[in-house]
Amino acid sequence: MLGLPVSFTSKVEEVVAHEGPKISYTQKQLGNELHFKSTDLLFEQGITDASIKVSDWNGVPCFFQVGEMSAMPYDIFAATFYLLSRYEEYLPHVKDELGRYPASESLALQNHFLHRPVVDIWVQRLEYLFKRHFKDFVIPERLFREKVLVKVPQAYAFRKLGLLRTLGGFFSDFFNFRLRRNFDRLQVLLGARKDPYDSFTWFINIQKQTTTKIQFFFELGDFSEESRNVKHSKSTFQSLIKMVADYSKVGLMISKGAVQSLPMLKVERRRLEDIVNRSLDQVAITHNLIHLPETYRNCIDQEIVEDYSMHYATHSGFRAGTCSPFLFYDLDYEIQTPLILYPTCSEDRLLVDERRGTIDMVTIRSLYQEAKAVNGYFIIGFTNTSVIYPKGKELLKTIVLRDA
Fold first, then answer.
1. Which of 71, 67, 46 is nearest to 132 (CA)?
2. Superfamily for 145-157+196-401?
3. d(Cα 332, Cα 334) in Å, to the nearest integer?
4. Contact 138, 132 (CB under 8 A)
5. Where is the DUF7033 domain (predicted)?
6. What is the 3-state secondary structure (H, E, C) of 89-146?
7. Is-above-0.70 flag for pTM?
């Protein structure tokens, strides 16, 4: 995270002989180097379930305390590894109704620091220590960045759904007395009004007014109970994706079927690549259905570079304790992978209550300030249906245009 070139050695004589900046990560100090006392975690093989005590370190939560005979009173290297590797998600836990790792099981939520990017704060303190200890030591400056994600599970509410789906929807709404919805359906099909889910031009016009990056993720799975998008082969749908790709980055929203099947993920990847005529770089996983490590192994198999699913579907905050992109580490294989995980801190549905007509500005401002204070990434997720309602539009404008 500091962007520094680093070399490692396990030979004491090399450390002693080195004349440049050097640190040791051991039980005991070797000489006059900057010494960080280590715990056992990074030297263990396999995964062990150990009791962790979270304490306060000058206003910041931390764990793996090592005492005073160290440059820092906590082993932040082990603590950082624990959070970034998602170590706790490999341990036995009770899954939620969708089979996901729940926020309630996490160390962060249980110890009330989910809303803080603690890893980035620890790194800031490490940077300060390096600058104080190593004179004329230059550390590259990090830049604060913002991104908005727009997931598209269903591009149209009524258009291009096919005769059977259209008739099925009509009769379902009729027998459930949703007459207004049938009226809207007829207006859209007769060309008298725009499809309510077709918000793409609005998003693109907002994109033109700001430097905040807006990225789109289209679901291209086969039709099922969970995947209800327009058929990928529809020319209108393909033209829509191509139009959006002319103005913004476009990625794949991996369907539930593709999360569970590598062959299906290959099919969905190929569909998007054929439409936009470029390789697939980025994905977001529907409903955050992350099953470690298999989900990310499949992404790596398909040479996907970036994932934007590292957040909880039920809680705002920093699931991996950071607001900075990081490489996925496969704990089972004990290897660092090329897949970059971009942590999202919240989604519009967690922040907007349309029935009450309110936006949780306290949470938004808190997350924004936390990310900006450490020059990290402030990433918020929306869907194409988010801006159907006034408060959804207001939230998006608040984030990208600074209306608030």
1. 71
2. Glycoside hydrolase/deacetylase (3.20.20.370)
3. 5
4. no
5. 73-159
6. HHCCCCCCCCCCCCHHHCHHHHCCCCCCCHHHHHHHHHHHHHHHHCCCCCCCCCCCEE
7. yes
Least confident of 31-45, 54-68, 221-235: 221-235
Both tokens of 27, joined, read 């039980």
Cα gap 366→229, rounded to integer Å? 34
Contact call for residues 300 and 337 (beta carbons, < 8 A): yes
What pLDDT, on the 0 to 100 scale, is given for residue 404?
37
- Which has the higher per-residue pLDDT, 9 or 93? 93
Residue whose tokens read 């290959």: 266
CA 319 to chain centre: 8
Instruction: Report the distance separating Cα 374 and Cα 376, nearest Å.
Output: 5
Name, in order, each residue with C-beta under 8 angstroms of 67's C-beta and a sequence gap of 6 or more. Answer: 37, 73
Quick one: tokens of 42? 């990074």
Residue 162 Cα to chain centre, angstroms: 34
Q: What pLDDT, on the 0 to 100 scale, is given for residue 67?
A: 87
Domain parsing of the chain, residue ranges: 12-133, 145-157+196-401, 158-195
Rounded to whole angstroms, the Cα distance separating 256 from 250 reads: 19
